[in-house]
Amino acid sequence: MRRVRIIGIGPGHPDQVTAEAARAMNEADYFLVPDKSADHAGTDGLLRAREEICRRHIPGEYRVVTVRDPERDRDDPSDYRRAVEDWHEARAAAYEQAMLEHPGDVGFLVWGDPSLYDSTIRVVERVLARGAVSFDYDVIPGVSSLQLLAARHRLVLNDIGTSLMVTTGRRLPAEAAAGADNLVVMLDGALRCRTLPAPSAWHIWWGANLGSPEEALASGRLDEALDDIVSVRTRVKAAAGWVMDTYLLRRLPSGGTER
């Protein structure tokens, strides 16, 4: 039966691809890669990063089939779930058409780990449900940006005796208001930590484009670190054409003393 491999390739550096992922890459006949460059200027760098990973880990030739990524409706945040589900369905239709046109075993090269804030597993399930293409699939885990953020800052993500919440920038204000005090934040293109009340009550460990040549780090009390983060973030985006933020926010004890 035709096989689909959903392969976690880490945050972007070829050295962070696992041996298991490299083996799976060499077993695929071609890779389906969403191309966002038509709607998001600068994101062709993401395609080049995947190609560099392929060059490093696949001896000889490899084949990449690009699929234009459907644009997501971002105009109505009150119906966020419906907008995302519609986008997933449009992606599934595009992937299905590409798989009909290109026989063979397919690899999906997924940033970080496929289980963590990524849509590929859900979209592949939708392709199966549509019924035009039959296949079996498996998932190969990858190094996540959370792990690389912690390593770069020499952190243990959970404080002693506490829990860790992983959330998105969209959810950050509500989670902080509800009392969460140790949060990893992903997918925060708006850098919503700037909107938190009492920024002096938080410490931030921030990273952008982790694992890439333009990787940048910053840390400190949130009110003191924000200007530097915004400035560095601007430089990273200018250099790379794209920027992905990941950061840990930890609420300081009363009095604002860092721990």
CATH topology group of the largest domain: Cobalt-precorrin-4 Transmethylase, domain 1
- Indicate the radius of gyration in whole angstroms: 19 Å
Mean pLDDT: 91
The CATH architecture of the largest domain can be named as: 3-Layer(aba) Sandwich
Low-confidence stretches: none
The top-level CATH class of the largest domain is: Alpha Beta
| Main sheet properties | 5 strands, parallel
The number of helical elements comes to: 7
State the separation between the terminal residues, measured CA to CA.
Answer: 54 Å
| Protein structure class | alpha/beta
How would you spell out the order of helices and strands?
EHEHEHEHEHEHEEEHE
Q: How many domains make up the 3D coordinates?
A: 2
The order of strands across the largest sheet is 3-2-4-1-5
The strand count comes to 10
CATH superfamily of the largest domain: Tetrapyrrole methylase, N-terminal domain
Instruction: Tell the overall outline.
Output: globular
* Helical percentage: 25-40%
